[in-house]
Specification:
Elements: E1 16-19, H1 25-36, E2 40-45, H2 48-61, E3 66-71, H3 77-90, E4 96-99, H4 118-140, E5 144-148, H5 171-196, E6 201-205, H6 228-238, H7 246-249, H8 251-258, E7 267-270, E8 280-282, H9 292-306
Parallel strand pairs: 1-2, 1-4, 2-3, 4-5, 5-6, 6-7
Antiparallel strand pairs: 7-8
């Protein structure tokens, strides 16, 4: 008897879904499952070779899947603007947006093309800019927007006095901040969307712990080999001990994106010991995500930093 956790994804024919970070790992599983359910899946990717490999993987499993690539580098606001313009020019409403892509714990401080600390700029601000640029299409599709945060957001804070880690940089602290900011923005998006009648809902999810490329060798991030933590996670995952796999880690975001009984502001993650693996289910908001005033500050500050395209996020 197969005891691996799974869910049923409802039919999604006629729904356009956008999944960032969908070229490998958890994002690829999310994209594949959405495509298998009939969604028209768009994968915005930075690396075209990885994107092409992802298309092959999905089509090998589901030959009739509708899935296509677009170009996107979340660490460049110019690239985000080009991607969102392309999508608006295509004009197709978006019913699901999964903000899944991210970078994790560069050992030394790196910056984006726009001078932001790499994790804050990519994981958080890049996705804020995506939401801003796609807002008309999200409204047209009455979309669910899913923000993939992390159990790292259980602790930490927004360093208002050193947001970009210029005075003091710690990779894990900066990673946690980026995911806390993403979560606070996601919660505020749900509240603002309801107040302004946008017709979209906003949800949080976290994958628990699973062996993905986040902690793999990333020379461009000054990490020449996979971390010790990544090797340990891989061993535990293969033996079915405590942590999840890419397949199970994708389930909370899939629930948030597709389950019929999910309300805006929901937070889903694994329900196993320590919430690092197991069946997906509702989670209590982490302490750093419970401050509505902090969420409003993150919203305002983020919109100012990205120079929102005035499509909605910056409106009064």
């Amino acid at each position: 008897m197969n005891r691996t956790p799974d869910i049923t994804v409802p039919p999604l024919a006629g729904t356009r879904a956008v999944v960032t970070g969908g070229s490998d790992g958890v994002g690829l599983v999310i994209a594949r499952r959405l495509a298998a359910a009939g969604a028209d899946v768009v994968l915005p990717v930075r690396n075209p070779d990885k994107g092409a490999a992802a298309l092959t993987t999905i089509h090998e499993a589901h030959p009739a899947a509708s899935v296509s690539l677009r170009t996107l580098d979340l660490s460049s606001l110019e690239s985000v603007a080009a991607f969102t313009r392309t999508m608006r020019d295509e004009g197709d409403p978006i019913g699901i947006l999964v903000d899944n892509a991210g970078v994790m714990t560069p050992p030394t401080r790196q910056t984006t093309a726009d001078g932001f600390e790499m994790q804050f700029g990519t994981n958080h601000l890049g996705h804020v800019a995506v939401v801003d640029g796609l807002l008309p299409l999200l409204q047209a599709g009455r979309a669910r927007v899913v923000h993939q945060i992390s159990i790292a957001a259980r602790s930490g804070e927004i360093a208002r006095d050193d947001l970009q880690g210029e005075r003091s940089y710690d990779g894990m602290r900066a990673y946690a901040q980026s995911k806390i900011a993403m979560g606070l923005f996601g919660l505020e998006l749900g509240r603002v969307a309801a107040q302004r009648g946008w017709g979209i809902t906003s949800h949080l999810a976290h994958p628990g712990v699973a062996p993905t490329s986040l902690l793999a060798a990333r020379p461009e991030l000054d990490r020449s080999s996979e971390t010790v933590a990544r090797r340990v996670i891989g061993v535990l995952s293969r033996r079915g001990i405590l942590v999840g796999t890419a397949e199970t880690a994708a389930l909370p975001a899939l629930v948030a994106a597709t389950a019929p009984d999910v309300e805006s502001g929901s937070f889903h993650g694994p329900r196993g010991l320590g919430h690092v693996g197991g069946r997906p289910g509702p989670q209590q908001l982490y302490a750093p995500l419970r401050d509505d005033a902090e969420a409003r500050w993150v919203w305002t500050t983020s919109v100012d930093l990205i120079g929102a395209e005035r499509l909605g996020l910056a409106a009064s």
